[in-house]
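Crash report, auto-generated. Payload:
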Amino acid sequence: MTVAITALCVAAAGAWLLAAAVAAIGAHLRAGLIVACAASCAGGGCALTAGVLLALHGHSAQVQLGSNLVGGASFHPTPLAAAFIALLGLVAVAIGLYAPRYHHPGIGTSAYLLVYNLGLLASIALLCASNVVTFLVAWESMALLCYLLILRHQDRPEVPQGAFLFLALGETGFVLIIAAFVILATHTGTLDLSQIAHRVHDVPAGWRTAAFLLALTGFGFKAGMVPLHIWLPAAHPVAPADGSGFLSGVIVKLGIYGIALFGFELLHGGPGWWGLVVIILGATSALLGILYALMERELKRFLAFSTIENIGVILVALGGALTFTAYGQKAIGSLLLITALYMVVNHGTYKTLLFLETGVIEHATGTRDMDKLGGLVRTLPRTAVIFLIGVFGIAALPPLNGFVSEWLLFQGLFQGFRIPSHVVGILIIVAGAAIALTAGLALNAFVRAFGIPFLGMPRTEPAAKADERGMPITGPGLLAASCVFLGIGAPLVLLTLQRVSHSITGVNIRAVLLTSKLTVLPAHADFSSLSPTYLAAFMLAMLLVPIVIYRVARPRARSRSTPVWDGGILAFKPRMQYTATTFANPVRVVFEALYQPHVDLQRASDDPAGRSGPVHYRFTVTPIFERYLYQPVVGLVKRLAGLARPLQSGDVNLYLLYVFVAVIVAYAIYAT
Amino acid sequence: MLWFLRGLRRGIVTTRYPDAIDDWTSTLPSAPAFRSAVLTDLLAARLQAACPTGALRHDAGVLVVDLGSCTGCGRCIAAGGGVVESSGEFLLSARRRDDLIKRIPINATAAEPFGGGH
Amino acid sequence: MIGEQQLDVTAAELRERALSLFGRSLHIRTVDTGSCAVCESEIRLLQAPHYDLHRLGFFFTPAPRHADLLLITGPCVRAFDNALFEVVNATPDPKAVIAVGACALGGIYPEDEFVHGALDRVVGVDVYIPGCPPSPLALLQGLLVAVGRLEERVSELSLDLDRGGP
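Recovered output after restart:
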């Protein structure tokens, strides 16, 4: 079994390498495209199986290629990576099923699929890496390959900017990650991750804290933690739909993987305040993410901000795990770690689903702007159903997976009173309140995201003429089925994740996590309980029972059926409907101090009723982070570079002088 | 609070209708009432001309009053020279439309109230 | 509605039936088919403390589906036909229809290409309330007659002062 798991990972990598090769050679033909995607799917299947088996079994074999320091690589999948590997596999299968109908065969597609499959390869290499150098090389490859992925349509207007932001912030994070690894490696004297984990107590506490904070920031750039998130709304809209799905579904999770790796595996937890920092950053990300999401009209930018929100929630779970463990409540800490991993898988499932369906909408109607869509539930019915399942998942509606994971998070946070420190307990409750507010706003946001494009009447001609034939359906459908399984079959999933957390933290909470009656408990037998399976059955009954009663016991009196009362309006026009902007107006008004909106109103004349010409109304949200954090930093860097410019005058004579001075100095040092 | 105290001072102002009808309702606009004994054809024609909504119609030997058209403006009372009065009746709901059409017989032998024809 | 096909039923029976259907409480939906809105003002005044509709068990509702009684004003402008038809259709049976004001009774506007002129040319009417506008007390009387709690008096009324008038 141990060997089988590693063999499956290797098989996945091999399949993706094959897919990349086939794509490079043959994807300008339809057959080549299909074969490449099939290979990608096969690799995904292997990865998914490997991940699940690793989670259940807990051990895998080690693979060593070449020597460790020079040109070699060392792989040993750990249980922590199991959930991420499984997620990677699932997303790869879904995208592999989706891509043949989404992309058109051609040179651009062939380059894109080459880069994408190599990106999958780099991701699994990263997740299986057991050596610092392997990890860093895989990380950087993954980042560069994703940069190329985003640049698919490089001649479109905003693509280079979005890709550049991704790369710039990713590289900044990479520097910090290197620093974090270097601190640990030099203090423990080894480059092997498991060895570092054993010897981490040799590292002084101050350096450990530095390593953790550097890792948190560095991996936070990739994960999309506020204020390090600005690449997400820039990069996601410009990448192709399956690329955005891959970014949001897998890549940001690799950032979470890095934080979890440092927090749990390498540093074995730490003082309680580490977790609190993560919780605070997570709660801020969640709240700001969803608030900015509500102001977005374009579907992909909206989903990007929603990813920031979900990452915030996952960070709160991770931080909670660290905090509770540090204060002695190991059971709840394990529960929150399980919740974080569960949320990672869930988010990967439904966010990828939503991005893929946005791609379908874009192909069918030509636009991603919510205000130009409408009535798609009639023209794209199957897409609408699958999108709705994704919305149910992400808005945490019962009985799907999002609901179970949010419930677990809240139950974990509500047990903050078990922590002896009052201040920490209060902070945890405040974070819980922030997440509750976020959940409410997220529901609002996703009702808007489903209602405006899908329900009502089509607002423009392309929306009315949308056609679903030839659109990919199997890939998103698979993800939708996974959402349902992850929700209703949550007991199974949680059991599996429990084994993972047992391997990581050493605490077995199986008895207080799950009862024999398929009920989930939040690490304490008498706090609360939830049975997702029975809940789903109950909800189904609640739907069916009234229908049965009506059919059986309906009054036999004469009845008259008339159309629904609609106010007596003669003919509805699409312009009478809500737009995305007006739907979110209450939130905009309440949080105006945060948005600092800039409103530009132009009238053709002074007539306040606008009778003599059109009225132009433009509303923009102030980008706070770009303006007050990034631009000053960029300005500072530019000024420093300007100061250094005289050194690079381009004058050959000056450079020869530098060489001469360097020789003198080297001679002087060598001589002494 | 002030509203409540003011109300306590003034007492209950809600009308007791349908148990009792308030006194001030005698000043409401109401349907006209006619002295049929002194109603002549000439006067009936004059009243028909005076009514702005056509509630009064002079048919052969009878003045037809359609309460459904009457707005209580009082022009017929002003033009009637004492033959027409305000009846004080304003609770005029009917189940049938015909119940609102009243016929006042004209007295052919009555003297003209304003003297000879002009 | 309750009165349409029962022209030869006695008033007492009609009253009994109305009381049994609507006696406890009634929800009213007002419809304005093109009036000058003074009748609406008088209707609105019914909710004020002086007349207090609610003590008699009447309530206003905006949804025709929840209404038992339609209070219709205005001379039925033809442009409103679709909406009027939809309101009357949407109100479930048994319902009562009351025509309020001289306009709805056909007393002000003749039938032409823009208006029907009278409500009973379009919808069957149970109670007619004349007046321009009818006083809130007249409206209350009309409502109580419609639900069978009062008996209408105008059929017995004589406007002839010399022959049994007021």
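Post-recovery validation: Chain A has a mean pLDDT of 90.
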